[in-house]
Amino acid sequence: MNAMTPFLISVGQAIPYCLRGLFPEMLLAMAILLGCILEWSTDPSSKRLVVWFCAISGLATLALSMITGTGAEAHLVGGTFTPDSITQFVRFFALTAAILVLL
Q1: Which end of the chain is more exposed for a tag (fewer CB within 10 A), N or C?
Q2: pTM recorded for the entire structure
């Protein structure tokens, strides 16, 4: 067990249970908004910063998605969102593809 494991576990436990399955999408939405603001506020010669920010945000979302995982009986946000193995697969596939396209 490495030194980062207790930190990652504490991060996973700090997320409220009713939002735990939805938190990766919330993080990604915030990263997209910040990426748009960064895109609009930087000059054209430093657009590489925006690409790296988006790639790192995608990696953070992928890591958070792996940390939070899925619960078989989890019905989150009042039963409107039920994460399952298909949700995890789509998250992993879409985020991996986006990161590879950015890099």
Answers
A1: N
A2: 0.72
